[in-house]
Amino acid sequence: MRRVYNLRAIDMPRIVILGIAAEAFACLEQLRQSGLSGSCTLISPEEVLPYRQDLLLQYSGQLIQESQIMLCDKDYFTRNQIIFLKNKKCAKLDTRKQNLVTKDNDRVPYDYLVIALGAGCGLPDLPGIAKDGVFSLFSLSQAKQVLQRLAYTDTLAIFGPPNECLRYYQIFSAKSRQIKIVSAPKPAEFVSSEQAEWIEGAVISEIIGDGQELKAFKLDNGKVIAAGLMVYAGESRPAGEFLKDGSINISNGYVLVDEAMKTNFPNILACGQLACAAQEASRVKSFEQVCAEGVRAANSLVASLERGTVSCPTCSSN
Fold it and tell me: What tens digit of pLDDT does each residue of 68-92 get?
């Protein structure tokens, strides 16, 4: 059944922040410090609290604890009177009606929207890529599954761009019995050992499983290698697939913003890994950079409210 959330605090604008990455939480915290926490709703595509996406690799390699990547405690939202909607994946942004439409057809209305979804990474198009046991490390749920499988898996396979594969190998080398890396060219820094093999003369052509469970992968030279865990060390990309309807200006998947983090809609802002200035080359941003953009987006929103430069039609109708 379709649900329409009533987010109205009396005479207050509905500020919706989409995402639980560091940039989303930085924006939310800045709005809270500005006295607007009672107006805010945070929407999470996952079942977890906000966390540091940039530390997922270290977490899955058991270099840090889960508590070290979390950005707030479980009582933060109740304590600050902030609405927190979990496990809500967006399917559509209706800019005319000012609604976010989720994949389960719920509708979340907004007066102001901040898009701060962080980074994503799609798996390559390979036969069997959807087998259980194949992951990319861009969500906490996937990082937890990698961590669990490392405890009992004999062979880990890493594939993707060579520099990222090397970085993943350096994290996982102390936790996995055997590591197979499929990438080219092999970096000069990599040193082969009995534990690790870098395969650069072939590419993966198929993921093989017993039913849905990963068992092995096949190379284009016909060789089959057993593996109980495969991690795609792909480069990050913006996580805003639902924005491709054409209303928000995007370039190569990135939301185009001005210096105030505003999009082509004055009441919709974007920040962090998803956002890019019109003349700026897309790049992976540091934790400090995405947090700074989240704060900038919050300050821009507050300034618009104070100046009254962005109308709030549903507020003025009350």
Answer: 999 999 999 999 999 999 999 999 9
* Distance in Å from the first CA to the final CA of the chain: 28
Residue 267 has pLDDT above 50, yes or no: yes
Closest residue by Cα to residue 284 from 185, 146, 163: 163
What is the residue whose two structure tokens read 């194949």? 134
Round the CA-based radius of gyration of the chain to a whole number and report it: 22
Residue 112 buriedness (CB in 10 A; 0-12 / 13-18 / 19+): buried
> Does residue 31 surpass a pLDDT of 70?
yes
Q: Tokens for 87? A: 């496990």
pLDDT tens readout for residues 178-224:
999 999 999 999 988 889 999 999 999 999 999 999 999 999 999 99
Distance between CA atoms of residues 112 and 8, nearest Å = 12
Calpha distance 279→292 (Å, rounded)? 19
The widest CA-to-CA distance across the chain, in whole angstroms, is 71
Count of other CB atoms within 10 angstroms of residue 173 = 14
